[in-house]
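COMPLEX REQUEST
Ligand: iron/sulfur cluster
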Amino acid sequence: MIPYVTLSIDGALIKAAKGTSVLDVAIEYGICIPHLCHVPNLSDLGACRLCIVEHVVNGRSKVTTSCTLRVREGMVIRSNTERIRHLRRNIAELLVAQAPNSRAIQDIAVRCGVKKVRYPFRNENCVLCGRCVRVCSEMWQAKAIGFVGRGKDRKVDTPFSQPSEACKRCGTCIDLCPMTITPCDGPMKPGEEYLCGKCESQMMEANSSPDQCIWCDLGEGFQCGRY
Amino acid sequence: MPGRELDSILEGRRSQPHQLIEVLQDVQENFGYLPEDAIRAVSRALGVPLTEVYGVASFYKAFSLKPRGKNVITICTGTACHVRGARLLLNQATGQLGVAPGEMTEDGMFTIEHVNCLGACALGPVVTENGSCHHHMAPGKLRKLITSLNGKGEATHA
Ligand code: SF4
Ligand code: SF4
Ligand code: FES
Ligand code: FES
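STATUS: Structure written out below.
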């Protein structure tokens, strides 16, 4: 028998199997916690920081990523407080500044309420979410690609930047990469990046019923846990 | 590839993935850098996927993936050394030798590298030359150091 624990997320009492993450449980119960690097059935890395929640312990709350937080008995989680929304908006703003040329990232910015971008656009083609690296190693046991270098020089690459013999040509890394779908109006030229925001109408319903998954289309570009 | 040296490094450590860093350190010490063939051989011998070996090798500043010059000059650009003018030292060295940091001079004599803190902040700015440490460095002192190393190299070559 699987041992269960009871925890509260945004006031709802939820029974969850021990060992699952708070994010998985929330998505399963239709509570929308925005996330990007999480992929169902792969290990969690906590790379994108979008899935932050408040974890209340003894009346004090700690902000932490819900994908790397395991459920525990009596846990109290808040996913949609003023503080979280503010922090999340900032994280989404940084992400969209880093990689405006992705529909998934633009969608996340809309979902997190980004209205303007205060940082210079970098127009990178990777946000180091590690989805490709993890699927390659965990699902295909191929380990053809990995993180190379560190700090600001960190990137995803094959050993010696040469075509890898370990690659099985499955293409899953590309399927899962949030950078492979351009914004609806096509790729943006360097120097002409902008915050798209055209899907904002998607948010009307979401705003009227906060912290509920309304099956918006904003998760499609990166296979949000529901798709 | 000098296979014998590599063999002796790998001796007794085959199929032991946890030995990865030690083995790479020994390879680095032996060859002055991590040659591609050696990295591939280490991956096979220890049973660690190549991607992981490459990831580790590219992560640490102590490892170099490119051949390094006879003299390795490491300039600390950590916070303490930075405020005491490490940038000037880096400019001096790169200007004098005409190479970018991390590159080797054409004659194979020098490589300039920079690191973030050598742990001797009170003595900054710090420069190490082939492992020996020079404290309170100034561009003039560094120029003399490089010139003298260059002279020594030529003398032994002749
Ligand atoms: S296509 Fe190659 S690199 Fe991409 S996930 Fe498959 S095996 Fe890994
Ligand atoms: S290549 Fe794509 S999937 Fe891989 S880390 Fe970068 S953004 Fe993520
Ligand atoms: S989904 Fe949790 S940090 Fe990215
Ligand atoms: S900053 Fe240079 S030794 Fe610490």
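REMARKS: Residues A 135-136, 140, 142, 144-145, 167-173 surround iron/sulfur cluster (ligand 1) (CB under 6 Å). Chain A has a mean pLDDT of 91.
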